[in-house]
Amino acid sequence: MIAHGVATNPKVLNSTLQSLSILALHGPNLNLLGQREPGIYGSLTLAEINRLLEEEAFKLQAKVFSVQSNHEGILVDAIHGALGEHQGILINAGAYTHTSVALRDAIAAVNLPTVEVHLSNIYRREDFRHHSYIAPVAIGQISGFGIQSYLLGLQALVNHLKVRS
């Protein structure tokens, strides 16, 4: 009986049939995950992280589209390209977190809900890693939980988008 009520409401039916689209951006050196400093970043490869994100997104009725680049301009272009294509951005900007005004400005310009994630706790590392240019334009930041940082970030982003709509 409840299902009948949902099916006859076009707005509810429409929102349940359309899955959310999330752009997952991975910054410099993340292509080396699994071999680069596993004591800090863990042993999972980027391909394994992307697979886990896709599996979690499926459970959340969302889709994740992943892009990795070691080049700042490519990441900026991907953020610009997200406008009209994706409803939110999940980003691990890697070292660009601490240096890139360009990424910060691109995120602010597209004005899409963005969650910043990091495998390691950036506040327990070198002092230069304690500042994020991304955090002030993100809806939240999760760091220090390994792969769970990505999964928790995705869950929070999707929840934010569903509550907002």
Q: Percent helix among the residues? A: 40-55%
Q: What oligomeric state do the depicted chains represent?
A: single chain
How many distinct beta strands? 5
Instruction: Please give the alpha-carbon distance between the first and last residues.
Output: 25 Å
* Global shape: globular
- Spatial order of strands in the largest sheet: 2-1-3-4-5
Poorly predicted parts: 1-17
Number of helices: 7
What is the helix/strand order? HHEHHEHEHEEH
User: What is the averaged pLDDT score?
Assistant: 89
The portion of residues forming beta strands comes to 15-25%
Rg:
17 Å
Structural class: alpha/beta
Report on this structure.
The chain is of the alpha/beta class and 165 residues long. 44% of the residues lie in helices and 17% in strands. The protein is built from seven helices and five strands, in the order ααβααβαβαββα. The chain has helices spanning 2-8, 10-17, 38-41, 46-59, 72-82, 101-110, 147-164, and strands at residues 20-26, 62-68, 88-92, 114-118, 140-143. Strands 2-1-3-4-5 form a five-stranded parallel beta sheet, sandwiched between helices. Strand 3 (88-92), helix 6 (101-110) and strand 4 (114-118) form a beta-alpha-beta unit. Helix 4 runs parallel beside helix 7. It is globular, with a radius of gyration of 17 Å. Mean pLDDT is 89; it is low at 1-17.
